[in-house]
Amino acid sequence: MREIQMVDLKTQYERLKPDIDNAIFSVINASSFIRGPGVKLFEGELREYLGVRNVVSCGNGTDALQITMMSLGLKPGDEVITTNFTFIATLETVALLGMKPVIVEPDPGTFNISVEGIARAITGKTRAIIPVHLFGQCARMDEIMKLAADNKLFVIEDAAQAAGADYIFPDGTRKKAGTIGTAGTTSFFPSKNLGCYGDGGAVFTNDDELASKIRSIANHGMKVKYHYNDIGVNSRLDTLQAEILRVKLKHLDSFNRARQDVAAFYDSSFSGCSQIEIPEREDNSTHIFHQYSIKVRNGLRDELKKYLQEHNIPSMVYYPGPLHMQKAYSYLGYGENDFPVTTRLCREVLSLPVHTEMEHDQLKYITDTVLEFFEKQK
Ligand SMILES: *Cc1c(COP(=O)(O)O)cnc(C)c1O
Questions:
Q1: pTM for this entry
Q2: Measuring CA to CA, which of 63, 124, 152, 323 is 20 to 30 A from 22?
Q3: In this structure, are 136 and 16 located in the same domain?
């Protein structure tokens, strides 16, 4: 059996090697490392895939969030609502720009931001909502868009974990994660569902004027060379990464299907185990399983993690500490007991290996070992 990893990028590379090597050497041969033709081509191909009017690539998913908020003209003191159960980048960029992050609980079943929580958090100072499509399925976008419309708020979808997921509106229309709100952001960090071989990110929007602002701000605030209209940043996807992403984008749907197959195997293997809660699915979204996260009851999560480790099975806790308890954010003034749902999730969640190269014997070994652990508790 091949060694089990959380994400097996090496085996994936070996499968795609001729195309990836070609892509890399073509960039080196042309030596157009920055703003080479591959960047525009990739943006066009991703735009097509997503069915969105504009894709602006940038340096990483964190920059994508920051640039989007700068482009929307959000100002210090503005309140931005997001979830307490996410990767720090979502909160960090809000705080970095001097705005006030207002965090709300996730739904304990789907892990996505609670719409009721958002509704309660809106004040006269609220300017934007950042739903995160956590672990690969979309937050409840139609309700979030309605709340935003009623209160004149921007919606920035953090779609870093949901590349290729579909949101299904009540009337059956489908849109890709990140293309529904005012803007959507993503990350091409290597382990993401659409990952490159370094850092990368992008912003999506159907608003052409906003797209032009985003493009400018990502490039030092200039549209015409050496003329600066805005205070910007330097954030770009390099040509090597763009060419690698062009190869991988062609496989994204099959990558996501492979992850869904892994999830289906886990689901059925754990269905008889009362101490494991399998990940609940959103009613209105496909799930592309950036993570497959179970909840472990009875305080056994850490012991299970240790047991798996002893059997050479990696697992990860996303996320181990609620954001409101992080030292850097103590100035927000939240109390320890303000977020019981997040606090409980941080104690119970465990993400199991899920990637595009998993084999049946690996999956069987993982699920057998998990079930054996719970047998031993009896
Ligand atoms: C990965 C991730 C980011 C940040 O992306 P980087 O490319 O690492 O900057 C932002 N938000 C979420 C939810 C993520 O998972």
A1: 0.97
A2: 63
A3: yes
